[in-house]
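Pasting as-is:
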Amino acid sequence: MILLVRGDREYLRAPGEELQTDLGVLTVPEDVEPGQRLETHLGEEFVVREPRGPDLFDHFERTGAPMMPRDVGLVIGMTGAAADDRVLDAGTGTGVLAAYLGRVGASVRTYEQDAEFAEVARENMRLAGVEDRVDVRTGDVTTELGDLADEAAFDLLTLDTADAPTVVRRVPDLLVSGGFVVVYSPFVEGTRDAVDAAEAVGLTDVTTHETIQRRMQFDDRGSRPDTRGVGHTGYLTVARLL
């Protein structure tokens, strides 16, 4: 898949597919390359761009509020998630986090309880080009914990579910020594429960951060943070197994 970009317009297409807009019609060549410039039959130009993480975030089919790229960046930065890591993820949703982790080269097994949401996530993984690295499974991860504990341990657990504390209590059975668990929650009550669970099973370096980002506004009057919204998305709790 490639992006056809003109100003603030972006259209996702596969080679051979057609784009029809008020600016005209064009067919994407089979041998299209990033950076190439294509013209519609009206002579209007589009630039070809290869989709990256933020582009996929914008173009994924959504089944709810996805994790924001800034939160994904914190997960990767605070855990050092890297190529060849084995990741257990729960609460797939749209699949933004799973896709990002797959694109850095990790092997991800992710659980989504809603079968329709899981199918959308699988299609999003195909769109991201990580279907060979991200295994989207339909089911409740808490019912699989016994079997998962019998497998080779995971390097990273990422949890975006209401029952995350239940999984956190099993972290010693699931993680390699030095591995991380991350819990994302939009509500502080669930965050406190996750912290209590992490401390109860002896995890170390337990920290929680509220993720807030403010966009800057620059105009003729001066410079200041944008006054629209407070930029809160959720709480990230990170803990580590000795």
